[in-house]
Amino acid sequence: MLLALPEAVAQTWMARHRVQRGNSNERVSASKEAPLPLRLDVLSLLGPSADQVLSGEEQEGPVPVVGVLSSWADLVAEQTRQKPVSHTVSTLTQFLLDHVEWVCRQAWVADFAEELEGLMKTLRRVSGIEPVRILLPTTCPTCDLRVMVREEGSGWAAECRYCPAVKLSAREYGQLVAAQAQAVSAPREV
């Protein structure tokens, strides 16, 4: 997810302009204020002032990208006794990538991953970019439906589209494939 984050931010930034719809000759409503030329949801996430709103308390909607990344980078810097890095998406992402092995050994790694996943989903939703999903030839171990997918950029080898708790690593997915292949090839008793 960290590797895909800068591209997702760039795609979201490209979606900052409002989409004009309808007939351009139609009369505008009698509003006293002109509409904003840019999307507020994009500005809130990336905006020119989003880096000033790190906590998200002064705005509506999700915490800005820089706010999410800087809170984790500051925690890593504090616990590893390093200097905090500048609060730009590229430096924060690189700092977290440089320390990802250390982060994976911490008790709070699940919270870190969950927050990054939520951030990526928000960026994809706001930018209108849907992740590439590849349907896998296995059934979900929880719901027994053939809805397992590999989602580009998710960090999981396989996940169920309907069971949010089913997210398999490459090793776990390999074990599932082997178990299901063995079940298919096993002779059935009549």
Short characterization:
The chain is of the alpha+beta class. The protein has helices at 5-14, 40-46, 65-79, 89-98, 100-104, 109-127, 170-185, and strands at residues 133-135, 148-151, 158-160, 167-168. α1 packs parallel to α6 (109-127), α3 packs parallel to α4 and α3 (65-79) runs antiparallel to α6 (109-127).
Order of helices and strands: HHHHHHEEEEH
Question: Looking at the structure, what is the overall shape?
Answer: flat
Mean pLDDT: 79
Structural class: alpha+beta
The number of helical runs is 7
Helical content (DSSP H or I, runs of 4+): 40-55%
- How big is the Rg? 21 Å
Q: Largest sheet at a glance?
A: 4 strands, antiparallel
What keywords describe this structure?
single chain, alpha+beta, four-stranded antiparallel beta sheet, 7 helices, flat
Question: Can you walk me through this structure?
Answer:
It is a single chain. The chain is α+β, with helices and mostly antiparallel strands and 190 residues long. The protein is 43% helix and 6% strand. A four-stranded antiparallel sheet has the order 1-2-3-4. The chain starts with a helix and ends in a 5-residue tail after the last helix.
